Amino acid sequence: MKQRVLLDAATIASRVAELADEIAAAMPREFVVVGVLRASFVFVADLVRQLDRAGAAPLVEFVHLSSYGAGRTGGAVQLVGAPPQNVAGRDVVLVDTVVESGRSLVAAREILRAQNCGQVRTCALIEKRGGNAIAPRPDFIGFAAAADQFLVGYGLDDGGQLRHLRHVAVVE
Q: Please, are residues 97 and 124 in contact by the beta-carbon 8 Å criterion?
């Protein structure tokens, strides 16, 4: 599989630090970062360390969603396992690595609201907007990418492979 680097590790690290500053300025000192598994685990780890540097004290939770249909994506969004804990009455930043249609963020927001959380803000490292978008744009966005690009690395996978890459690449 041929790949082309879209975002190198240094570019990602710099933007994650900037996102942390933006989030820390917009949120109370204590809030909950809820990552959408599986893709967000690398981004969440880097983001919460930068939030600490920026003076925030986030709790970290995850919501495990699956939207895989017959292909790489496209099926109904389903909760896998238990909903996130420790969110009742707390403000939340919901974090995903890539937002395309927004279906996962909409589903995760509904799950969080059912847990009686406070305000929910959203963050995406990469926004890939196409004509199929159903959700508002994330509150915090790192980068934009073309809707037709299939991305791997930095937590993003192709059939479970390539999540470990320190960069984001386009599969060509």
A: yes
